[in-house]
Amino acid sequence: MRTLNKVLVGLDLSDIDQQLIAYSSFFTELTDVKKVYFVHNIKRYEISEVLEKEIENVDLESIITDELKDMIQAHFTAKVEWEVLISDDPYTESLMSYIVNKYSIDLLILGNKNNENGSGTLGFKLLRTIKCQFLWVPSTMETKLKKVWIGTDFSNASKKCFSFAEYIQSKQNFNLEAVHVYSLPMHFSPYVSDSKIEPKLSRYVDKRFDQFLNKMNYSGEVKQYKILGREANIASKLKNEAYKNDVDLLMVADKGSNTFSKLTLGSITEDLFNRDLKIPLLIVKDYVGN
Question: Partner of 253 for a Cys bridge, out of 71, 89, 157, 273, CB 3.0 to 4.6 A?
């Protein structure tokens, strides 16, 4: 069985760090992680020449290490081994990728600051390049796990999410719901009455749901939740419905298959990732568990 052993948490000395450390503590403890690495990259290229002269005799690495250690000791309460890594690589993306590979990282945790201009660029680049699981954590939320949603398009790729959920559920009890957004394809709309086709479409989705879940043989209970998307953006619909249903964690696969309607989970994943989500988003790239 593949497990989560090593976690990497990216810190940038911004306001989100405390929340990120606290949620990392919560999540790593409930998943029995063995070690957590906290990394910060000093961006020396952003330091002006005037300031560079003022701090030329200052050991920035030592000062930042001490500051982060104090913050981690205050907010990381899990009984899990941790270590602080400091670097001054000009390319943060390459540094993170290097650490993921060198330390065989299973899960990368970053803060979602998409409400700030350009702040999601690094995360989006890493989402496309790293091979480990990716947890995108917002700055404001409750640290709890009572309800989890898995967005699915009934593809083989989305099965990875259920494997991960089953792994977490073996350690922490929560309600799991499989969620599918469906709509009538646009090119049918001029020729078919919505009132006639929607009930048939709903029954078809129910059938697909049953077939998909039966094939997976999930050990726990999985509730089905379908959403009629109509013309709404699917990522927006998932986000808003998740808020209404008090969802604590949204899980999606890194890619999917467009076998029906306009749902292509790969593009939906990117869309969700680039939104100002108020709940954690877990992007599953590989199987965890049995």
Answer: 157
